[in-house]
Amino acid sequence: MRPHVGVIASYDFTREAELRRWFPPGAEYTLTFTERVAYRDNLELVSGLGSPDLLAEPTRTLVEHGAQAVAYRCTACTFVAGAAGERALRRA
């Protein structure tokens, strides 16, 4: 069985070709996106994108498509709320 990874990216992600190059030959991935987030500044944007509620539906979609692991491709979003926020994202 080939490894299948689910990837969640923010709604404005534009680097799918680059993402494809990160995966080893033979690995499969499914890409899905977050919903849009309203914001006035960058902190508000990454705080909104770091909300566990925002990840629930994309995660369910990826698991339903057979993803064996799920990665969230948004570095700032994973640490904006500190260690507790990162734990909440992993639970989501």
TrEMBL record:
This is Uncharacterized protein. It comes from Streptomyces venezuelae. The lineage of its organism: Bacteria, Bacillati, Actinomycetota, Actinomycetes, Kitasatosporales.
